[in-house]
Amino acid sequence: QVQLVESGGGLVQAGDSLRLSCAASGPAFSSYGMGWFRQAPGKERDFVASISSTGVFTRYSSSVNGRFTISRDNAKRTLYLQMNSLKPEDTAVYYCAAGKNPAASTQSPDFGSWGQGTQVTVSS
């Protein structure tokens, strides 16, 4: 079982940037795809971005494409999400997730381990 711990959230103003990190412990971090999801108050958890096990393939939701960048450092067993040009609608709890296979999936059922989440709040 993979343990995931997110960090880097906080309160920022619209237009600012943040970088989230997700530290993984457990077996074979470089063998599975990783993803970021987010959940705003009163809403369902939504896909944000994902990355394949090697880091070659990435996928983004249309709402963050061009503003967010997902990356990973397999040697450091860490996943990142660089968030630029933040908007108030990006406010949510952001979750890191480890996939069940090497692909960059967009679907929650394809991820087997989840972190506790980190709060991102963007003020207007």
Give a verbal description of the structure.
Helix content is 0%, strand content 51%. It has strands spanning 3-7, 10-13, 18-25, 34-39, 45-51, 58-60, 68-73, 78-83, 92-99, 111-114, 118-123. Strands 2, 4, 5, 6, 9, 10 and 11 form a seven-stranded mixed beta sheet that branches. A four-stranded antiparallel beta sheet has the order 1-3-8-7, with no helix packed on it. The radius of gyration is 13 Å and the shape is globular.
Helix count equals 0
Radius of gyration: 13 Å
Helix content: under 10%
What's the average pLDDT? 97
Structural class: mainly beta
> Strand percentage, roughly?
over 45%
Unreliable segments of 5+ consecutive residues: none
Tally the beta strands.
11
Shape: globular
User: How widely separated are the two ends?
Assistant: 39 Å
Short note summarizing the structure:
The protein is mainly β and 124 residues long. It has strands at residues 3-7, 10-13, 18-25, 34-39, 45-51, 58-60, 68-73, 78-83, 92-99, 111-114, 118-123.
Task: List strands and helices in order, with pairings.
Blueprint: E1 3-7, E2 10-13, E3 18-25, E4 34-39, E5 45-51, E6 58-60, E7 68-73, E8 78-83, E9 92-99, E10 111-114, E11 118-123
Parallel strand pairs: 2-11
Antiparallel strand pairs: 1-3, 3-8, 4-5, 4-9, 5-6, 7-8, 9-10, 9-11
Which properties best describe this structure?
124 residues; mainly beta; four-stranded antiparallel sheet
